Amino acid sequence: MATTQTQRTAAVKRRSAAAKRRSAAAKRAAATREANQRTPVEQVQYAAERAVLIPVGAALTATDRVAETVADLARTYSTPDTAQKRVERDLRRFERRGTTARNRAERRIKRTRTRVERELRQRRTRAVRVVKRNRTQLERQAKNVRRDLEKAVNQAQDRVTSAA
Length: 164
What we know:
3 helices
């Protein structure tokens, strides 16, 4: 079976990736060995150097970023004409973004209001139903009690008339 060009390329890439992984692992191992071979004085010196170099590097990075931002702004607003166009474009963009945010907030408020109104209607309907059911039960029970009392009164009157 003949190997195709893509198979050979894939094999080369796999070997290359494996070599890079081995190389990175070897570099880490070498760094670990080097750190372990330092004397305590060298370790303190290394820590002190890092303590000084880290803030210096951070300050230089911040300086580069500020200089880059200033250069961009200077390029953007180099002439009054371009500055005017840029400001107008930015204002239109901000207005569109504000309009979008307002519309989104209004839609969210409407959805919330609709949901609350629906929940209140459902609660009111349930409450009306419960009140109606309870009133019907009460009226039925009152009717039964009245009937039972009238029956008891009639029986008592019958006993009184039959005893006399």
